[in-house]
Write a structure and sequence with these properties.
The chain is mainly alpha-helical and 127 residues long. It contains 4 helices and no strands.
């Protein structure tokens, strides 16, 4: 389970980087809080950060349950795929909104496998 905890730490670190990127983008744009619109680059970076937060709420518990009832190594691997997907999502989205799809799909697929696997594993353990 230590490997899963380490990957969760990497997920959280990536999220912190996204938060810092929002701050840096906000500084470059000159748009001060609480404003969240006015510069497309800031708006896209905010979407990366907020969408990642939405995903983390699902992926971290799913990883932990999957690791407990199915496989810690596979859960950690899927968590790393999620991190890669989020990085590609960020890179694509910052270039142009229509370029975010591949990263979203990669991270989303990892999340779906983790969720379905965690349900399967926990139900199988209960029977």
């Amino acid at each position: 389970m230590a490997i899963v905890a380490a990957v969760i730490g990497i997920i959280l670190l990536e999220y912190l980087v996204f938060i810092m990127m929002v701050g840096a983008t906000r500084g470059k744009s000159g748009i001060q809080a609480p404003a969240m619109t006015g510069d497309p680059k800031l708006e896209r970076m905010l979407r990366v950060q907020l969408n990642t937060l939405e995903q983390i709420v699902v992926v971290i518990p799913a990883m932990w349950i999957f690791a407990t009832y199915v496989s810690a190594a596979v859960a950690a691997g899927l968590g790393l795929v999620f991190v890669l997907g989020r990085a590609l999502y960020c890179k694509g989205y910052l270039a142009a909104a229509e370029k975010r799809g591949a990263g979203f799909a990669i991270g989303g697929l990892a999340t779906i496998v983790l969720v379905l696997g965690s349900i399967y594993g926990s139900v199988a353990a209960a029977l």
